[in-house]
Amino acid sequence: MKKGVLLVNLGSPDSTSPKDVKKYLGEFLMDERVIDVPLWARTLLVKGIVLNTRPKKSAAAYQKIWWDEGSPLIVLSKRLRDKIDDHTSIPIVLSMRYGTPNIKSGLQELHDQGVDEVLIFPLYPQFAMATTETILVLAEELRKEHFPEMQFTSVPAFYNHPDYIRVLAESISEKLKAVEFQHLLFSYHGVPERHIRKSDITKSHCQIDGSCCQTASPAHQFCYRHQCFETTRLVAEYLELKENTYSVSFQSRLGFDPWLQPYTDRTIERFGKQGMKNLAIVTPAFVSDCLETLEEIAMEGEEIFHEVGGEKFTVVPCLNDREDWVKVLSRWIDEWAFSNPVEA
Ligand SMILES: C=CC1=C(C)c2cc3[nH]c(cc4nc(cc5[nH]c(cc1n2)c(C)c5CCC(=O)O)C(CCC(=O)O)=C4C)c(C)c3C=C
Ligand SMILES: [Fe+2]
Ligand SMILES: [Fe+2]
């Protein structure tokens, strides 16, 4: 059998035009693992309401961060793929869950290269049904329908992997070594609380209260909230951060359901109002800089902080195509490809 890797990230619109943004948001938000309500309700909400208003607003936000080469998320993911490709001999293809290049074309590309054993590699450190799970489910549907001879293995969430923690912690320490900051905020993409309960394999562990995520449980294999806290705890331990000098918040909420709290925008506002002058922020749910880090955090977040009296707002870049990150990913891929040889 011949091995290959499908790296998968979230995806972006093809351009910043409201038409392309509408197409992208339509695909994204009609995913039953993103907006997890019955099809009729999702259709009414997304096609009847959200797609009539949000594309214009989102397109304006994308225009603020778009690069000459295209969407930062896609450009940075391509750079990462190319650098990994320089380190390893097995085929590496990049796909996006929404928009282009899509997962079907990625699998086709691997198939055309003779690959029949594929490592599906969702580029998300923490598991969520709206990210990792939707990739794995779609890939499996496509395999059954179009590539039945292929075999898939997938990379589990790496939120607590020592290599990931080290690289993330080093990236923070590099950015902050010459910066004075009073507090480091770990801002993760939010999800509706309902998603956490749905992913609870024990069906009773996740209460989304003060203690469940700190109490050992098999539910944590699929608990996004627990995994965010663990990433934070391990990075804080690595960097020897003192208690009360760091905390967790959740950004990018959409709609009226309760999402994971505390919300990032309100946290930034509260810090400023309490008199904090220097705030640093890191966004570990994203491995590539994107709309949510470059616009929502680095632009809007900074504006909120300044409006309430904050002075210095430092944003740690995502891992993107950092050399140590590329080396870690290449090694993980090589370990999968070469430590487990399939008999001829
Ligand atoms: C309504 C539901 C959404 C859920 C649940 C959600 C979870 C989730 N998303 C990411 C990563 C990214 N999201 C990005 C953009 C984005 N996310 C949503 C909605 C949900 N995300 C929307 C509507 C958008 C589009 C922009 C907008 O209109 O606000 C991005 C950036 C994409 C880019 O092109 O740069 C990323 C990355 C994670 C990790 C996650 C759950 C853990
Ligand atoms: Fe999102
Ligand atoms: Fe939990």
TrEMBL record:
NCBIfam families in the cross-refs: hemH (TIGR00109)
GO CC terms in record: cytoplasm
Name of the molecule in the record: Ferrochelatase
EC number(s) from the headed UniProt entry: 4.98.1.1
Predominant location: cytoplasm
Catalytic activity: Fe-coproporphyrin III + 2 H(+) = coproporphyrin III + Fe(2+); heme b + 2 H(+) = protoporphyrin IX + Fe(2+)
InterPro entries: Ferrochelatase, Ferrochelatase_C, Ferrochelatase_N
GO biological process: heme biosynthetic process
Keyword 4Fe-4S recorded: no
Organism, scientific name: Gillisia limnaea (strain DSM 15749 / LMG 21470 / R-8282)
Localization per record: Cytoplasm
Function text: Catalyzes the ferrous insertion into protoporphyrin IX.
UniProt keywords, alphabetically: Cytoplasm, Heme biosynthesis, Iron, Lyase, Metal-binding, Porphyrin biosynthesis
Lineage of origin: Bacteria, Pseudomonadati, Bacteroidota, Flavobacteriia, Flavobacteriales
Positions annotated to bind Fe(2+): H189, E292
Family, per entry: Belongs to the ferrochelatase family.
Gene Ontology molecular function, alphabetical: ferrochelatase activity; metal ion binding
Keyword Nucleotide-binding recorded: no
Domain of life: Bacteria
Pathway the protein contributes to: Porphyrin-containing compound metabolism; protoheme biosynthesis; protoheme from protoporphyrin-IX: step 1/1
